[in-house]
Amino acid sequence: MKALVIAEKPSVARDIGRVLKCTKNGSGFLEGGQYVVTWGLGHLVTLADPEDYDPKYKTWKMEDLPMMPEHFKLEVIRQTQKQYHAVKSQIHRKDIGEIIIATDAGREGELVARLILEKAGSKKPVKRLWISSVTDKAIREGFAHLRRGEDYKPLYDAALCRAEADWLVGMNATRALTCKYNAQLSCGRVQTPTLAIVAKQEEKIRKFVPETFYGLNAYAKGITLTWSDQKSGSSRTFDKNRIQEIKKKVTGKEAVITEMKTSRKKTFPPLLYDLTELQKDAYRRFGFSPKETLNIMQRLYENHKVLTYPRTDSRYISSDIVPTLKDRVQACAVGPYRKAAGKVFKGPFTKDAPFVNDKKVSDHHAIIPTEQFVQLEHMTGEERKIYDLVIKRFLAALYPPAEFEEIKITAVIEGETFTAKGRKVLKEGWREVYSQEEDPDEEQDMPKAFPPMERGKHIQGLSFTVTEGKTKPPARFNEGTLLAAMESPAAYMETQDKKAAKTLGETGGLGTVATRADIIDKLFGSFLLEKKGSEIYLTSKAKQLLELVPEDLKKPELTADWEMKLSRIADGKMKRGTFMHEIRDYANSLTEEIRMGEGTFRHDNLTNTKCPVCGKRMLKVQGKKSEMLVCQDRECGHREVLARVSNARCPNCHKKMMLRGQGDGQVFVCACGYKEKLSAFKERRKKEGAGVSKKDVQKYLNKQKDEPVNLAFAEAFAKLKLDE
User: Which PROSITE patterns has this protein been placed in (predicted)?
Assistant: First the structure.
């Protein structure tokens, strides 16, 4: 009898098939002597739509709500049904004795495989492959230590509970809001609190009143002394008269050094990356959206096999990974990383390292390199950037702390206190890995050293300058900072309940590390969020939605409560039935609350353009990367793109331009006011020699590897006869 291996994606299936010597290609599967390997395309099976339970649900009516299926049905996703039937046929082969689940090692990966088995009606015994990377070595070791399928039944229960609960709450609340207010309004236990977080930030910005503050600096050769209040220690005051009086008092006077403190300090390397931390850094450094970063990471994990599983919420590794660290360092010791890797290659690699903690690793450890040898030339520019972040963070973690000497000088001028700080680097430590980059954590204004100073010294010839500034409002969210707020939403909670805040911290905030990027994208796609530059704004639709949606659904506490219970189900400490009974009651009460609501919804983005399908006036909406007209009739759903963000850069300010219009009349428009017809743009680019694709460049570079350089010189030298 053979074992059937079910992978989540074709690329992973091919890797597993190669290791298991499955050389025969079938329709949707690979086969060898002992194993048959097949795959999903992500999810092949999902929860059925409402109309599959009753034809009346095809029409959205308030009187048909709430929808409460006694037993949830499963349906094959139409776009991937061919692959589902290929998998099903393998499951029911008479020579298949057991199933090995080899989907991603996590809650959602478990759901992918179990729903396929459930829909196919499989009764065959199940085993589980649980690995964090898809290198040949990891696959071999994983198959040598297959786990019992029954051990992961609670994980499947938790995943199914999450899916069914989101169906009950999301479907009913969305339909109730849409029917009640005759507008396409969607809500959910993660996306609605996320909107509420953005709304709270906008409210803070709106209420903010800037204040002017003042300071005083004293300058002498080689040193700058800053005034500080003797009571509070603050270097700023909001009293302009006071700072002017102090300046008047100290002008022309000398400073006396009263104290010099020298302290030796250490800074430890930052922890390893989890997905959220990586997404935040990638946005800050390169402007990559969270979704883009996840997609790039997935390619580095699945295709290149040089990084470990991306959807992790841990920044630590477990002790069993420590013996593999030397091989991982060796694998990435190429190109720009050779020098840094060489310094740590000989170790020691110990389980006492700060980034090793078994208790802080659940399903997956932090993102680190695999033992797979890396070929940087095979990566795209975007892949190189993400790989660079991960490798430098990994190598830095293996370096010793950075050490420096900090000097603080305190001086007195006519009874007023002035201070200055300096720093002297003693050991670069982990900062050596980032030696070519600007360190964002370093105090850029802090001088590296002072001229010779000692207690009691008098400093003469000082010049004084009053400094002035304004308090700044809270910053608007961008995709990176919104991701961080979703991870740590306790500051935005209504109740400030310490227990709920603790729960949020333990469960990882709103959504999961794997779903947050999708939630943000969905909010843009639903026209609830829009971008102006890099900043995120609520749309009018979102503001009205937050007024109409039940209060409970806006609170981060709800999702914290869910995630805590789902974790308990996954650990076998709570019954699936208990949780689902609570959810059904909640969905019932939520629907009734919306039904009894007294608010109104008004489209304030109506245009005079009529829908070519139904004739109703269309709405002008701003998508994440496009501006479009959308029919106001939710059942019609017709859309037309007015303008989209292009990759073409403005020749004046170098920002990406919008491409407006249709056909030959298309025009590039930039926020700075620059305009250029598409035809003129093409002509200009042609003259500049642009238009070469990345593929063309790669072909050219590959060609150069096989051909000698300086061909003209080579031919000339070939004709010379030189004595040996």
Answer: TOPO_IA_1, TOPO_IA_2, TOPRIM
